């Protein structure tokens, strides 16, 4: 199957009725927030989207997306490869949806007043959440080796138990 450009917006309910399947790509330069959070990437995000109904007759979107990007290692400051992958099930928030009946492994997504979902923004948000908060090389792959790291030692004054905050307040109230 040929990879084509993915739609920006879709109607998840109509797509589920049609049992639509999409297999395509988004260019990284179109995902501006993701592009701003990384050093560079391979140029595209591979996306597979399957729209259907589940056993409860909820419209669902089964989405997988993946890309390889380059982020900055927070330990050594050098670029490092990071694989970002997403595999999740989403259901649109409609006026008929009873959120208590939605399975816990589904994510509920908002649609606009026309019933459309911004698919590109949804995938971009999910991939942004896949970037580690503090990306680091493995210790044996990092430019800064374990013997170069220092953890410091506490002096004896710092190891003493600090005064109670209430004792400090008492001393402010009743100066000697």
Automatic annotation (TrEMBL):
<dbReference type="InterPro" id="IPR003772">
    <property type="entry name" value="YceD"/>
</dbReference>
<feature type="region of interest" description="Disordered">
    <location>
        <begin position="153"/>
        <end position="176"/>
    </location>
</feature>
<comment type="similarity">
    <text>Belongs to the DUF177 domain family.</text>
</comment>
<comment type="function">
    <text>Plays a role in synthesis, processing and/or stability of 23S rRNA.</text>
</comment>
<dbReference type="InterPro" id="IPR039255">
    <property type="entry name" value="YceD_bac"/>
</dbReference>
<protein>
    <recommendedName>
        <fullName>Large ribosomal RNA subunit accumulation protein YceD</fullName>
    </recommendedName>
</protein>
<dbReference type="Pfam" id="PF02620">
    <property type="entry name" value="YceD"/>
</dbReference>
<keyword id="KW-0690">Ribosome biogenesis</keyword>
């Amino acid at each position: 199957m040929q990879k084509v450009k993915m739609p920006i917006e879709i109607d998840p309910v109509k797509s589920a009725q049609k049992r639509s399947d999409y297999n395509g790509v988004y260019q990284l330069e179109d995902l501006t927030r993701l592009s701003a959070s990384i050093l560079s990437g391979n140029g595209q995000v591979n996306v597979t989207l399957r729209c259907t109904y589940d056993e409860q007759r909820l419209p669902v979107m089964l989405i997988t997306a993946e890309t390889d990007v380059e982020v900055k290692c927070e330990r050594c400051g050098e670029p490092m490869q990071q694989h970002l992958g997403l595999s999740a099930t989403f259901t649109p928030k409609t006026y008929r949806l009873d959120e208590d009946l939605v399975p816990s492994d589904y994510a509920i997504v908002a649609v606009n007043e026309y019933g459309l979902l911004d698919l590109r923004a949804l995938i971009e948000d999910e991939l942004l959440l896949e970037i580690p908060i503090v990306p680091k090389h493995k210790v044996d792959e990092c430019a800064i080796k374990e013997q170069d790291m220092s953890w410091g030692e506490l002096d004896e004054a710092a190891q003493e138990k600090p005064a109670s905050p209430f004792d400090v307040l008492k001393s402010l109230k009743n100066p000697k």
